[in-house]
What does this fold into?
Amino acid sequence: MNRNSASGVFEGYEVVNPGGSARVLLTCDHASNHVPDHFASLGLPQGRLQQHIAWDIGAGAVVRLLAQHLDAPAVLSTHSRLLIDPNRKLGSPESILRVSDGVEIPGNGNVTPEEATLRAQLGFWPYHHEIEKALVLGEHVKGVMALVAIHSFTPVMAGFERPWHIGVLYDRDDRLARPLLNGLAALEDVVVGDNQPYSATHPPGYGFEAYGTSAGRPHVMIEIRQDLIADDQGAARWAACLGQVLSTLLNDETLFAKQYFR
It folds into this structure.
């Protein structure tokens, strides 16, 4: 499925390789910069919607390729994070941003509770219901599933040039993150961030908490620097690197015992 069905109705999610055999679900919260026509680009020029404030540049391409490398199912969001952020709790200040990286979002300046609910019904809930469905169906057939969320980050933020090529984010459960950090660090000429460029705890991502920590599943969030995956060649390279490391880790049966953290 993708953002538009045959009838032209916005669906809110895209599913890739739903029958994949791997015991992992890939997700991409910010794969798209699409804003449904009803919201008139949120008052932004199209050039702004091409920038990182609207989506995670390159992340969707990496997820689609990684799904092939691992033979894994994947669920991708198909609306811009500026409409409503799938990775933030509904009603939080970060859910519908009025300003993003210094850019005012005109269409988000006075969002009523009714409109916020509409946005959630259009994008947030369909995407997350599809993730839940994929996990439940996968676990019915294969046993406990791992969750790997793919994001991307800007090369420069607030004047600071970020040195990392890729970051591995985790909170209390590091059983997948720790071997992934070690595996990536072993690759030639790769600078790996340990909970960089962000910490996964401040604030915790919605899916990270809902499907990982509180559900007992092994989980990790991966951030890749956007200039490295902005074209097809870069996305293919990093999908291959991640596929190489993750395929080994996912063969470890001890990874899949559910662990709960309070």
About this structure: The helical segments are 46-49, 59-70, 113-142, 177-185, 206-213, 232-249. The chain is about 30% helix and 15% strand.
